[in-house]
Design a protein that fits this description.
190 residues; mainly alpha; three-stranded antiparallel sheet; 3 strands; disordered C terminus
Amino acid sequence: MRKYREFGKVYKNPRRPFEKERLDKELKLVGEYGLRCKREVWKVALTLAKMRKAARTLLTLEQDSERRQLEGGALLRRCLRYGLLDQDHMKLDYVLGLTLQDFLERRLQTLVHKHGLARSIHHARVLIRQRHICVGKQMVDVPSFWVRTDSEKHIDLAPTSSLGSGGPGRVKRMKAKSGKKAGGGDGDDE
């Protein structure tokens, strides 16, 4: 028996669809970070809005409130784990200062390019989608994967990748196979 789930939307369309300043800013982000479409910008914007909203509601509570201590601590730890805030800025006020660029810098696609595994940000996306990149021992083929700070040093080529220490790729295997067939026929004639 199958169980179906209904998931909510992970992005939110802008209220004003043709606002020139916003369109230009989004287009610049899409080009700079090698995103597929503006929907990827909207996904990150919604995540940022949710975090900032949580921080705003927690800041309205009293300083010694139990809810503020628990939920605020969890929010700050999450920001620290993903590298959005550093140890010096562990306050809810700094969560309100986060920007889209802070989030986009933590994507796997951006980090693969920054670590020098890809020639460009677009090449990084292709490498990830073609399953050449792993984080630790886990193969990751999602360019928007959020990399934690402790996992960042484990980004590398996958062991099964033809670009790394893995076997030859499909084209090389096919050429070798056709070469054996052609070579086998010549060997029988001698």
